[in-house]
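Section 3.1: Structural characterization of target chains.
Under the original work plan, the team committed to producing a structural model for every single-chain target entering the pipeline before any wet-lab resources were allocated. The record below documents one such target. The sequence was received from the expression subgroup and is listed exactly as submitted; it comprises 110 residues.
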Amino acid sequence: ALFDLASEHGTVTAVETDLERIGTALAESGDLAALIGNPQVSRGEQGQTIAVVAQHLALAPLTAKFLGVLAANRRLAKLPGIIAAFKAIAAAQRGEVTATVTSAHPLSDE
C-alpha cells in the first residue's frame, strides 16, 4: 500500500530514503527499537513518539503519516519487515536484481 501511494505521488525515492533513515535509527537506538515492539506502550504514546522521530528525521509527509497509521494499528513492530519489503519492491520496480557471486579465486578491485 505504501509503495502504491508513493508511486502515485512520485515520491518512491523520498519514501525509500526515509525508510532507510528509520531503519538506521532503529538499529542505532535500542530505546526506539524496544518502544516499537513493546505491547505495554499505548497506541497514543507510540504515535506521539514516532511523530517526534519523524519530525526529527525530517521525513516526508507520506512517510510520517504511514508511521502514524502503523502506530494507531499497533503495527510498528512490523516496521523492519515493512522496510525490507519496500526496498525489495522498489528495486524490482527499477529492474534491479540481487546476485551472489562465488569465485574459485579472489577477485581484484578491477
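The CA atoms of residues 47 and 68 lie 6 Å apart.
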